[in-house]
Structure prediction request, 289 residues.
Amino acid sequence: MDDVRTVVAADTVFLLRTWRGSSGDRTPVLLLHGAPETSSCWRDVAPRLACAADPGGERRVLAPDLPGLGGSTYSGPYDVPSLVTQVAALLEAEGLARVDVVGHDWGGVIALGLAGLRPDLVRRLAIANAPYRQGPPPYRAVHIPLLALPMLPEAAFWMAGRRIVELMLRLAWKAPQPLDDERRAEYAAAYSGRDRRRAFFGYYRAAVRPRPGARKPGSALPRSLPDVHVERALVLWGALDPVLPISVGEAVVRDLGPGARMATIPSAGHFVVEEAPDVVAAALLEFLA
Prediction:
């Protein structure tokens, strides 16, 4: 069972879920979720990574709610370097000098930023349905400029926030089995508070309109991310993603270089971590071994 607690690091009070095997000294794993989810999305994957059966395979696994989202409090700014600073401070607070990082969606963007800006902290990198240098086709990602608009997202979420979150989950979920009602309600509630919504929109606004003085402009746009150099990288992709087609994943592999490889999951959409947890866990265990 996961242990849930809060950790104060830099400007963020993180809600942190951890799993830990009884033995083993393998590199810890940091799991970064996407939106509109929370660290709960890893609940079917993280225990398997923590308690791998191979010799020495047990690991410490950490899954925080991203700064400002879910149970974590943070007031910004939301550009990638600032978010990386928060995550790096969390690792320091937990006494971790080097980790393997797995990120999905926005968590994948932050994982790429962490590997690029703080390569000393990252041994291996795994990305699931998150862009790097090549962004999604504009006609597939109309939500990005919409969520970055002033006032309009606040008004829409004030009137129908829970229904909008549920719609986002439903439209991008392509696995045969649906997301269960309990988890859908959990995510809808996690994005219902005003501060959480402000942070959620802040991620997109930092991408479209970068704050002055940031080391790198934006965050979701591929050109905003630093160069990433890792010895080994894994790119996991739900092949039916309606926002990020396979071609974006293939571009991530090319841009990460010869140490990267790709694994596609044919029956999954954008929320691949929850749509195909068995496949994701197996691929990560093989990659991290």
